[in-house]
Structures are given as C-alpha cells and as structure tokens.
Amino acid sequence: MKEHRTAFDLIWWVVLAAWSLSILFPVVWVIYESLKTNQEFFQNVWTLPETLNWGNYLSAWERFKLGTTLLNTLYYVGASLVIGTFLTSLNAYALTRMNFRGRKLIWSLIMLSLFLPGINALIPQYILMRDLHLTNSLTGLIILDVLGENVFFLMLLGGFMQSLPMELEESAKIDGASLFKIFSRIIMPLAMPGVITVAIFKFLGLYNTFLQPFIYLSDSSKYTIGVNIYQANMRMQYTNDWVTLFSGVVITMIPSLIVFIICQRWIVEGATMGSVKG
Amino acid sequence: MTKNSSTLTSARPKLSQQLQKASFQKTVFLLIAIVPTFGGYLLFGLYPNLMSVYYSLLKWNGITKPKFIGLQNYVNMFQDKYVWRALLHNLFFMATVPFFILAISVLLAYLLTNKGYKGTSLLKVLFFFPNVLSTVVVSLLWAFIYDGSFGLLNALLKLIGIDMQGYYWLGDARTALTALVPPSVWAGVGLYVVIFVNAMTTIPKSLYESAILEGAGNMTRLFRITLPLMTPIIRVSAIFLVLGTLKTLDMVLILTRGGPAGSTDVIGLYMFNMAFGEQVRSYGYASAIGMFLFVILVGAKLAVDKLLPNREYEY
Questions:
Q1: What is the band of B47 on the pLDDT scale with cuts at 50, 70, 90?
Q2: Start and end of every ABC transmembrane type-1 domain (chain A) (predicted)?
Q3: Does A82 touch chain B (CB under 8 A)?
C-alpha cells in the first residue's frame, strides 16, 4: 500500500518489536540460564554464564530420566499419531464419500460432541478406563486418544476429501479397482495435504497433552515428558538445583521447536483451517 | 446385434457375482472405517458424558458401593462457598483473558496486514510460536519469570528503579490471580493473529485505498473498515476463548495449584481436586460440579451469542 510513513509508524513498529521481544526474550533467557552454574544463577539474572555448562543438560538427562521419558513419549505420540491419522482418514472417507444406511445418524451423533464441553466427562471417563484396566498404561492412553473424540480432524479431513471430484471413484470402479485400492491409491495420495496437516496438529496436540497423562499415569517410569518435567519442578522445591531444571525445560521445548521450524508453513496455514470449528 | 445380446446374457451371471463381491467389499470396508472410530466415540465420548449426569446423583468415593442420594450433591454445591469463589475467579479470567487476547491480536494483525512493514510474514510465524509450546513449558517459563529470587520480572523492574525485594508474585494472594492472566494471553495471541491476518487479507484493498484518498487515518480505517468486516470472525473467536477460559485448569494447576489459600482456584480445578485430589475422592460431588460447569458453558455461549449479534457485512 502506498502511504507515507509518519511518526505514528515508529510507535506501531515499536509495538511489533515489543511483542516479538516478549516471545524471544523469555525463551532465550531460559536457555542462557540453563548454561550457568547454580552459583551464577542466584547471583545476577542478567550476567551471561562465564563458561557454557553443557554438563547441566547431561545431569538433567540423568536426573529426570529423560531417556525413558522420551521413549514413553515417542511410543505414546508415535502410535497415537499413526493409528489415529489412519483411522481418521478411513472414517472421513467413509462418512463423506460413501453412501450407506445410518450415515446421517452417525454424522449427527458425531456433531453432537461439538456441544459437549468434555470436561464434565473427565470422571466417568476415568472410571471407564479403570474398569477396562487401561489406567497407568501408555497403551491405555493411546486407545483413549485414538478412539476418543477426533471430530475436529474428522471435519478437516472430511472437508478436504469432499472437495475431490466424485468421478475419481467411478472411473476407478469401472477399471475394476477395489474400495481398498481406491482409498489407498487414489484418495489418500490426493488428500495428502490434509492428512499432513492433521498429522502435524496431532503431533503438537499429543506432545503437549498434560492432563490425561497426568491423571492416568501413576508410575514415574511411565511418565511422558510433560508430566515428568512438571514433577521435576515440584521436587525442585527441596533441592534448589535450578540450572538442571532449566536445562530440562529447554530439552522439553526442543521437539516442538524442531517441528515448528520445519513445518511452520503448514502449521500457520493449518491453524486457520482449524478456526472454522468455532 | 445378436452377437451383442449373446455376450450380454453370458455376462449377466458374472455381473451379479461382481456386484455381490462389491457389496461384500463395501461392508468390510465400512466395518473397518466406521466401527473402531464411531464405537470408540460412543464409548469414550458420549457414554461418559451421559454417565456424568448419573454420577452427579451419587455419593461415591470410587471404591465403596455408590449410594444414590438424588439432588443432595447439588444442594451441597450451592451452599459451598468455595464453588462460588472458584466461579468468581473464572469470571475474572473470562473478563480479562479473551479481551486482551482479542485486542492485542486484532492490533498486531492489523499492523502486519495493512502497514506493509518489512518481515511481517516472519513476524506472523514468530508470534505463533508460543502456541506450539505445551502448557507445562509455558507455565514453568512464567513460574520462572515470576520467581522472587531469580525471576525475570523483578529483575526487569529493578532496571527501571522498582525494587520488589524478592517478591513472589505467585506466592501472594493479592497478586497471584492477576499474575495468571499474562501467561494465558502470551500463549494465546499467536493463533488469533494468524486467524485475523488471514481474514484481513481477504478485505479488498480498494476499500482502504479509497478511504486513504478521502483522508481517513489509521484509526478511522481500523474502526470503520477492518473491525466491522471482521465482526463475524471476532465473534466466533470470542465464543471460543470465553468457553476455553471457563474450561481451563491445567495452567492454574501447574502454576499455583489454586493457591495461595485458594486465591486462584477455578471451577475446573476445584472439580478436579474433588475427584482426584489427595485428601478427597468424591466422584459424585465432583460430577455435580461438572454438570454445573456444563450448564454455565451453555449459558455463556448463549450470552455471547446475544451480546455480539451475528451481523454480516457485504463488500
């Protein structure tokens, strides 16, 4: 837009810069505090570490048993992601592109969940999981997630698949392709952009889930990374080894950071797709 | 002609066979595609929601035999002053968090879309970054910022000459509740910036150009063109944020656990503590609070619907 810059623009520019700083600064601060010694840590917030104590990361890795925790997280996130995305794709295909009796009823029952806040179902869900012997189990969490409410992703993928031309299936059927083949060879490749968006958001959602793992996992050997770092923070009240905790928090941030940097375009665009949900 | 009809007759049994095979295939496919997900949804989604109504009528600690006590939980709840205190805190968050998130993200989105500064697409991505961080990370980050002995906030205040002398922002009932607002705003703005930027870029540039020609300033353009055209999307965002604010409990759980002395307790956390807390295990009572929350959520949605009428502008 052609417009002359005024003094106001300086103010607006400062507003943008200030918000950027409010995001960057705390993150950078946590990183450089994590490289100090505990002595330096308590002396002054502003001074940079004299030597970079990468050893803090090693002790965080050992003290918080991050190896086990990350394996747990990988299992929980990975399995839920793969199985969940596959099932949601199948489901979206069947519900948007196939005709069968009861389809409308199933859709409207699924849509009903948009009106349910979910938080009041926390307790019955817990009892159900307990009765099914799925508590204190990562597999239980995977089952809950994969078979739980996926309405948002279902709508996103369903919308995507609906936009593909209907002639695709018809011509494939004439050529004698089975439904399974149509789904795997034609629909899935064409719906890939939608599937990838769903997968990225599933990853971020699962990796960041706190409440369910916190409620359902009781053995510390089964903790996911979020629960683990929360418990580490609780213990910190007695040990005062803050630089190690800071390192732990930075390690927790790294997977989200990597996925964000690699997939930022998908994420930022996909976020608006999600906003249709309302 | 005869040749043709003969091939048709010979093909007929094959065709019906094929059709049979196809319908069998369809049934198998549908079973795989629908049953696990829809069955799971009925079991883990709808069933617990229905059961929460029933549970709210029980006196039950989850272990001994449940006792049906009718509406007693609800009677107790309405006399429980902690429920009302928690609800009041929810109202405080509902009045502040969505307002700040919407105001800041509309402003930032407007600056990113309409001012033509350099690097705005990079800034849009940067602003989104807190949204990909987990609640635990965001909460701990802010717990560090608010800390009395090594916190960033006290250090910043010291730079401008205010010495808080190791004041613990989350440890004092006077400031703890207010201190919970910035983390939620910080973590929430990015998503709405992206949503609003995308909505604003669909507004025709010609509208702004003619406004500039007529000498309309920044503020006039923002309030006369951008905001009216954005009303529908802001409205949806407001509903989403208000309902989300009502439901949150994890950030409060991590940052203060409702303390000090219950000064930051919210209804979701109170319910959570009634069900899963260390001292109490009262599934019936917690379910009643859950039902109450459900009613408030529906009420809040209707209220926002009424307060922000759904007007569509044409351009």
A1: very high
A2: 70-263
A3: no
Residues pairing with B58 in the sheet: B68
Give the confidence band of A278 by pLDDT, cuts at 50, 70, 90: very low
Statement: residue A276 has pLDDT above 50: no
Give the C-alpha separation, A267 to A214, whole Å: 26
Question: Who's near B188: CB < 8 A, 6+ residues apart?
Answer: B97, B101, B130, B131, B241
Query: How many other β-carbons are positioned within 10 Å of the β-carbon of residue A17?
Result: 11
Cis before A213? omega within 30: no
Give the tokens for residue A168.
């695709």
Query: Which residues, numbered 3 to 32 in chain B, qualify as contacts with chain A under a Cβ-Cβ cut-off of 8 Å?
Result: 22, 25-26, 29-30, 32
Q: How far apart are CA A9 and CA A26, in angstroms?
A: 26
List C-alpha distances in Å: A30 to A250, B133, B142.
7, 14, 10
pTM of the model: 0.89
User: ∠ CA(A46), CA(A48), CA(A53), 5° rounding?
Assistant: 135
Residue among B132, B126, B152 nearest B141 (CA): B152
Tell me the residue type at A188.
M
What Å distances lie between residue B235 and A222, B39, B60, B242, B308, CA to CA?
A: 42, 34, 41, 11, 6
Query: Among partner residues B127, B250, B291, which is closest to A19 by beta-carbon distance?
Result: B127
Chain B closest-CA separation from residue A85 CA (Å): 11
Give the integer Cα–Cα distance in Å for A66 and A238.
20
- Specify whether the CB–CB gap between A41 and A243 falls below 8 A: yes
pLDDT of B84: 95
R_g over Cα of chain B: 28
Q: What is Dmax (Cα atoms) for chain B? A: 104
The pLDDT of residue B6 is: 47
Cβ(B248)–Cβ(A211) below 8 Å: no
141-180 of A, contacting B, C-beta below 8 A: 143-144, 146-150, 154, 173, 178-180
Min distance B2 CA to chain A CA atoms (Å): 25
- Establish if B128 touches chain A: CB-CB under 8 angstroms: yes
* Chain A residue numbers touching B271 (CB-CB < 8 A): 119, 122
DSSP-assigned letter for residue B35: H
Q: How far apart are CA B63 and CA B283, in angstroms?
A: 10
Q: Which residues pair with A12 in a beta bridge?
A: none
pLDDT tens readout for residues A158-173: 988 888 888 888 888 8
B81 to B88, B261, B273: CA distances (angstroms): 11, 14, 15
